[in-house]
Specification:
The protein is about 40% helix and about 20% strand. The chain starts with a strand and ends with a helix. The chain is of the alpha/beta class. The strands form 2 sheets. Strands 1-2-3-4-5-6-7-8 form an 8-stranded parallel beta barrel, surrounded by 5 helices. The protein has a two-stranded antiparallel ribbon with strand order 9-10. α1 runs parallel beside α2. It has a single domain, classed as Alpha-Beta Barrel (TIM Barrel), CATH 3.20.20.380.
């Protein structure tokens, strides 16, 4: 699937409705209180999918790989299976899933990640996630993830920040470094989505680096990342993304 435009991360059906009304091209489901790629509960996901229906593709944050490897944790495959089992008839399945690699820098992450990918339903798009603050996240460096992404059959790279209390991605690594990672991803055929406390005013700069997708949450919420998605803020962002 070719991704393009504004992605808005939502945590419930009401937020999804606001994001769609504001012109979001892609709806992403996550629970921000559980981290950068916090996994939402199946019932919440099903309610959002019922709201979205065929209005837009929706993607799913599946947490971090180290959570999958933790003894007693609920596996990503099991979580997804439980979610798909309760989707209403009119709801579509997720268009893509994302798995983070925080805490995996010194572990055999490629074999473990491929094992998870191979346990998921056939046809589900895979999104590789590279943290711009990878040292803080104790994650593999972005270039290593880009190389592994192609081998794993990923079609898209998400460049995001792990620490949501720190500076946004443009302040944290700067446009030059971000551009280098994006060029490396495109050179191997990956689409690129960029997230990480991007402000609405920074959208033109991100697109100027040739991003395919700008992914927002805090910028379109009242009171930041844990606030509520606002239709008017999504509309402003959507206009800058050329989607209005």
């Amino acid at each position: 699937m070719k991704w393009r435009g504004l992605l808005v991360s939502v945590r419930d059906a009401s937020e999804a409705a606001s994001a769609l009304a504001g012109g979001a091209a892609i709806i992403d489901i996550k629970e921000p209180l559980r981290g950068s790629l916090g996994r939402a509960d199946p019932e919440v996901i099903a309610a959002i999918a019922a709201t979205v229906q065929a209005q837009a593709p929706w993607t799913l944050a599946c947490g971090e790989l180290h959570e999958e490897m933790h003894a007693g944790g609920i596996s990503i495959a099991r979580h997804l299976a439980e979610t798909l089992a309760i989707l209403p008839a009119l709801a579509r399945p997720p268009a893509a899933v994302k798995i983070g690699l925080a805490g995996m820098a010194n572990r055999d992450w490629q074999e473990a990640l491929n094992g998870v990918w191979n346990s998921l339903p056939i046809g589900l798009c895979r999104v590789a996630v590279a943290y711009s603050d990878w040292q803080c996240a104790l994650a593999p460096p972005p270039l290593a993830i880009i190389q592994a992404a192609v081998q794993a059959g990923c079609v898209t790279l998400l460049i995001d920040t792990f620490d949501k209390s720190a500076a946004g991605i443009l302040q944290g690594v700067g446009p030059d470094q971000l551009s280098k990672w994006m060029k490396a991803a495109r050179a191997v055929g990956l689409q690129v989505a960029v997230a990480g406390r991007i402000t609405i005013d920074e959208i033109p700069q991100i697109y100027g680096l040739h991003a395919d997708v700008v992914a927002l949450r805090s910028a379109v919420c009242s009171n930041g990342r844990t606030g509520r998605v606002q239709k008017d803020l999504v509309q402003r962002a959507s206009t800058l993304c050329g989607m209005a």
